[in-house]
Amino acid sequence: MRLAERMSRIRTEGAFEVLSRARALEAQGRNIIHLEIGEPDFRTPANIVEAGQRALAEGWTRYGPTQGLPELRQAIADSLWRTHGLDYGIEHVCITPGAKPILFFVLLALLEPGDEVIYPDPGFPIYASMIDFLGGAGVPVPLVEERGFSFDLNVFRRKLSTQTKLVILNSPQNPTGGVIPADDVRAMAALLRSRDVMVLSDEIYSRIWFDEPPLSIGTLPGMRENTVILDGFSKTYAMTGWRLGYGVMPPWLADAVNTLMVNSNSCTASFTQRAGIEALCGAQDAVTNMVAEFRRRRDQFCAALNEIPGIRCTLPQGAFYAFPNITGTGWKSKPLADALLEKAGVAALSGTAFGTFGEGYLRFSTANSLEHLLEAVRRIRAFLASEPPPA
Ligand code: PLP
Fold it and tell me: Is the pLDDT confidence value at 360 over 90?
């Protein structure tokens, strides 16, 4: 029996591969500092856990409406009114088990073979994987370090064609920590407004920013009807394992996503959704404290990285990643990431795990204690001082 041909076009995520190699080394007794995986190292806030427990005790354990509980969809619409000034109804909101399925379902609902999809490179690896899997034509547009990891807008303009069906934007970004400047978002909206193109705005890190708040393209005039906002609870509320995400989109697309859900997951766990209502409507100090801690780590970790000869780390503006340029060390990204894991006990990801334009970079997640982050920098510095790059 052979797998379907399409399975040769789907890929996996580097973070999960490196995590399993790191675990194998730990099983041999090695000490590894984990800076590979993109999930907050905080516990889900107690009020949210209690709401989930209460929901279980109250019997929220059955199938719910496919599109999601109306109360949670309303809470999401209300929160978008507060954060984006956009007046959405619950018919715009689809709840999914994590935010990843929004990406999967929206692409599945929109793409015909050969349709072009513009996406950031380096970018979340699932974008390219899903585009290829569905027979779309991926059009990677490089993120430019000197522009704070935004696009070169001339390149972006040139890549738009009559075949472009979808543009994927992500801000704050995985893996770079970049936030697309508001002027760039406005310039892209001006280019897209008159075209028959959908935008998938991946805003999963929307609440984790340090200086300027990210501007959502969906809030700009004429963009709401061709924008899908992807967001969720995984990062903001440290709820990765609860699997709770959502998409906000025009109702014709929400109907299509609904049909795909009827055929796959049926619905999202009801007790998880009840906890999501508490997350959005309850106290937000846990989010504020988490973001403050990510900022403290960012400042000290990046400053320490910048003291290593050959490493240059642009200060991330959001999310919880650092994406230093390592070209000055003489190492290529993948061999350096492999060597740091095997020889220095630091698990990080090669920039190339996020696309070809990630060459010359490593991605570190700052979802670890400051003590471990600074110890990782000491190990990296000692490793680079003792080991010359391969010839
Ligand atoms: N989008 C980006 C840019 C991400 O980094 C992630 C998770 O790492 C997701 C979407 C998916 O989030 P979830 O865990 O809610 O499926």
Answer: yes
